[in-house]
Write a structure and sequence with these properties.
The protein is mostly helical and 63 residues long. Helix content is 70%, strand content 0%. It has 1 helix and no strands. It starts with a helix and ends in an 18-residue tail after the last helix.
């Protein structure tokens, strides 16, 4: 019976470790989501320049 008890305790310890690891992963993912939300809000707040060329003036006429 002592062997069964030690096996059960070992199994319990594994489950506890897995739960703690999952909680840490959830916290890290939540921090990532929060950072993405901040970035999205900043982009949405920034003034948008419509129809601006991506790099330099590409509409120059040749004279």
């Amino acid at each position: 019976m002592g062997e069964t008890l030690s096996e059960l305790k070992a199994m319990r310890d594994l489950f506890i470790a897995a739960i703690e690891s999952s909680q840490k992963n959830i916290e890290l993912r939540q921090k990532s989501i929060n950072a993405l939300n901040v970035a999205i809000e900043e982009i949405e707040k920034s003034p948008q320049i419509e129809n601006a060329p991506a790099c330099g003036d590409r509409t120059r006429s040749k004279k």
